[in-house]
């Protein structure tokens, strides 16, 4: 799923959501599932090549959807409090959040279809 972004001095769109990789937050979002949350689109350690996004994967589609819903809620909570006014860049990105795909026995919920 895409991350909300803010416009930095009308020059560069900066993704928000790095807080999702915090160990405490990951434990809370993942719970007792066998899922992982990966966050992409920040400058470290490589230059940004895409908009920021979170990829949730696991062996059970129900767990992936549950964790993805928690990530979506965390992003929306952040967006409401964000002092930089971050937002999703357009409505089509929000639609992509609902896609779940299966590849090689693992389920993914992200911005891409397989």
Major sheet description? 4 strands, antiparallel
**Shape assignment:** globular
Spans of at least 5 consecutive residues with low confidence: 91-99
Q: What is the averaged pLDDT score?
A: 76
Distance separating the two termini: 14 Å
Strand content: 15-25%
Q: Could you explain the architecture of this structure?
A:
- This protein has 114 residues and is α+β, with helices and mostly antiparallel strands.
- Helices cover 31% and strands 24% of the residues.
- It has three helices and six strands.
- Strands 3-4-6-5 form a four-stranded antiparallel sheet, covered by helices on one side. Strands 1-2 form a two-stranded antiparallel ribbon.
- A hairpin with a 3-residue loop joins strand 1 and strand 2.
- The chain is globular and about 40 Å long.
- About 8% of the residues have low confidence.
Gist of the model:
By secondary structure, the protein is α+β, with helices and mostly antiparallel strands. The protein has helices at about 25-30, 60-80, 90-95; strands at about 5-10, 10-15, 35-40, 55-60, 100-105, 105-110.
Task: Considering the chains and any ligands shown, give keywords for the structure.
114 residues, alpha+beta, four-stranded antiparallel beta sheet, two-stranded antiparallel ribbon, 3 helices, 6 strands, 24% strand, globular
